[in-house]
Amino acid sequence: MQRRENLTHFILVSVIAVVLTPLMIAVAAQAQITFMSDRDGHVHPRLGWPTSEIYVMDADGNNQRRLTNNPNLDTHPSWSPDGKRIAFMSDRDGHFDMLGGLPASEIYVMDADGGNRQNLTNDPNSDSSPSWSPDGERIVFVSDRDGKRDGNRENYEIYVMDADGNNRQRLTDNDFYDSSPSWSPDGERIAFISRRDGHFIGEFGLSYEIYVMDADGKNTRRLTNNRKNDFSPLWSPDGKWIAFASDRKGDDVNFEIYVMDADGGNQQKLTNNRVDDTSPSWSPDGKRIIFTSQRDGHVHPILGWPTSEIYVMDADGKNARRLTNNPHYDSNPEWVNSPFSVSLAGKKFTMWGWLKQVNRQLPLLREQR
Q: pTM for the whole thing?
C-alpha cells in the first residue's frame, strides 16, 4: 500500500511539473513591471507638452518596450491581478474637462502586449487613477464627474465599476479632494488620500492624509495625521504594510518613501536624499519596492526640469539600484502581482502552493485508511 501511494504521488508530481514548466517559462518571459515614459518625444497636439506612453520591462530593467503609441497622454498603468491586462488613463478621446478646462482623461484597458484596447468610461469630465480589485472583477478609479469643486479646483471622488466598465458607483462624497485609491489584497478595504480634514494650509493649499475605507465606501478612518503631504498608498502583498510617499518637510518639497503598518502605526522612512522619491510599488513576494526617483540629476531635454528614473530597493530601504536610465521622465511603476509569485492574501493558493497542499494531504489520506 505504501509503495502504491508513493508511486501515485510520484506520478501526480511529475504530471504537475510537466504542466507547470511551460507555464513558468511563459510567465518568466512576460514583462513584470509597467510604467509610463515620455522618452518617445511625442508632443500633445493641444497642450504642446511632451506626452507619455505606457511601457513594460522585466524585473531587472531589461527588455523595455512600448505598449501604446499616440500623441496624447497615456498614464498611470495598473496590472490586472492575473497579469493579462493593463488598465490606464488616456485623454485620446478629445474631451475637455468641463470643470478644469483641460483635456479630460478616460479609463482604458488593454491586453498585456498592448493589443485589444477598450474604453471603459466616457464622460465629459476626467476619470483617472485606475486600480484593480484582487479578484480582477472591479476597478476603482477617481473622477470629478459629480461637478463639485474643492476651493479653486475640481473636486475628485472615488468610484468603482465592473472590469467591463458597467455598474459605476460612487464610494466617497464630500467637498474635498479624494484620490489615489489602492485595494487591499483581501479585497475588503481601499486606501486613498484626501484633503478632507483641512488641518493645514501651505503654499499649495490643504495637505493630504492617507485614509482607509471598506470596499463599499463605509467606515472611513484616517491613518496618517501630520501637517505635511502623504501620497500614493499601496498595500504590501500580505496586507500587513502600506508603502507611501511623504514630504515631511512640507510644501511638496523632498518626498521620500515610507512604510507603515496597515493600521497607520509604526511609520518608517525608507529613503533619505535631497530629491524626490515617489510612487512606491511592492514586488509580488513583498521583498522589494520599486519607486520613482530624481536622484540622478537628469534634466529634461525639452522642459529643462529635473526628470525621474525608476529604482528598486529591498523592502527595508537597502540596496537601491536603478532600472531605467534616460534623460526623459520614467515614472509610476507597478509590479504585476503574478499568481505564480504570491497568493492573494489567503484567498487562493498559487500552483506551487497547491502542490504543497497535495504533499500535506497524502499523509492524512494514509491515516484515514
A: 0.81
